[in-house]
Amino acid sequence: MSNTTRKKVLLMGKSGSGKTSMRSVIFSNYTARDTRRLGATIDVEQSAVRFLGGLVLNLWDCGGQSAFVDNYLSSQRDTIFSNVAVLIYVFDITSTDWEADLAYFEDILLALRTNSEDAGVWVLVNKMDLVDKEDPKRKKYGERKDDLLAVDQRVRKEVEEDGKGNVKGVLRCFPTSIWDESLYKAWSSIIHTLIPNINLITSHLTYLRNLNQAVEAVLFEAETFLVIAKSGSPLDCDTNDLDEVEVNKGAKGLDQQRFEKISEIVKGFRKICQRNHEQYQGFEAKFDGCTVVLEPLTRNTYILIVSSDPRIETGALLFNIHQAQNHMSEFGARSVLERKCGLCRHNSELKYDVKGDDDPSVSAWDDAPF
Question: How far apart are CA 183 and CA 227, in angstroms?
Fold first, then answer.
């Protein structure tokens, strides 16, 4: 039986801000150079992407020309802004009409807050590559972010004072460019917040990491190669908040953009494979300082396991991944599991039923210790 969760995501921004380019890079395997041939979005283009946990992302790419925006805010207001899980709004950092851009954003944010009070708002200040050389400390981005947070506070106050709702969704800002890994970082953070049972998935990754005596276990979506979740500490946490295993195994010294760089590299390599009529399967390697395996975990995810123990062989990592595949696949495909693992049986957040699980004599499939 299907256990599908559908989330409506609005992708909006003034015409030319780069929203369709970033959508094409993330979801259609375009390179940044490929996006030069894209035309402007006409009205609303809808697409659907399936992720782990039965999540289907309904992406509404809304044209940014003034006539379309005016229509969204008037005759299409309820259709566009109702039942929204996330608004992704894209700004062009090089815009010469910032005040007008802010006014448009404020109107859209007000429409969203009065129709979908729980919606999260992600603001991507795009084309950072065009200003970073002249502004290496990103003072301009900091000023733009302050303006956006002020707009958010103003809208919240207006909505709540008018009795139109109690705004719960938060606003987050990211600097982005289609020419580097910052785009993957922003979109991974967005998708991470939408995945059902994300805490349970994270606990499974942490258990698998510990079973392999690894530094980390990271889950990627198969098509977009966005990071869905990781073991141990939260996905976007500061290095000071790493868990004990990560600290002891040297995760503090790892590149903070490593996941996004892996996403970019793998997608580029996979595109080369396609041109050569080869199918990308995965990656495994043993170096002086670590052992790395990147392998399919479910039909729509890949898992990366990194071990710093020189005694660990790739075959051992692959064996444990293959043992976990069937169980992890159930999260996205079924509402009734055949048998919970030890983690599932002791997790109060689990929303699935398990046949015969009320019988304490029935052991979990892996007998996970606690």
Answer: 12
